[in-house]
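quick one before i forget lol
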Amino acid sequence: MTDAPALTPALLRGWPLPARDGDKDARGAVLVVGGARRTPGAAALAGLTALRIGAGRLTLAVAESVATALAVATPEAGVLGLPESGDGSPTGSPGPHLAEELDRAQAVVVGPGLDEPEGSAALVRVVLDALAGSDAAVLLDAFALGVLPGLDGDVTLPEGRAVLTPNLAEAARLLGVDDVAAADAAARVADRWGAVVTCAGTVAHPDGRRWVSATGYAGLGTSGSGDVLAGAVAGLLAGGCSPEQAACWGTAVHGSAGDRLAARVGPLGYLARELADEVPALLVELQA
């Protein structure tokens, strides 16, 4: 395992993002699968951040009872309804249009706003099966990570195209342990699951490479912040970044947004939606 360099502006400028000069289709399509009735905003936060970081097209697949309201609240996105239980949790049935959107997407996020294990596991299985023969990248977050250990041996993460974004509790579950230290959580999960991982400010590749964030305040530990990180990484994946570049740039931009808001608003109390609003200007600065 190599020493972990810090994700400084100098490092990022030496690792430039792919050019995004075309129309919305050339800039990449992101599909976010999540959004139970109680938590549709998580899917919206992830999706809007993907657009903020440069993705050209966004589709949100959420519980059908909130799809219309989310479409009105998020006019930048196409929204489709997923079959749901009486409690408003997606059941895992793909419904009539999910296969079409999976075929069109360059990056698929599964997890933001899901809240029930059986349906979440079924959706993870549907997505991974659909993407097995494609070039699309997949990012698993939140509840999709919680159910992944139970699918071990039943599904396969696409080699070289998968990113996991666990918090420390989710990392421990992925490793089958009670807890895991922040310093080595990402590396251990990457080695165990064969995917690029960003966790607690560290990005790890399964080949042993690591990078550490040079930014971030405690205020990043707020509701929806992880959805913003997932969306940032997914938007970069859709634009042609490798999983490790997308995870590194997404983690750095997410942390830098927190630093900027900490200075302007205070170290605590800023909102996840405000993190997303900082992204376009930060990208300009980091690429200058």
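fyi The chain has eleven helices and ten strands.
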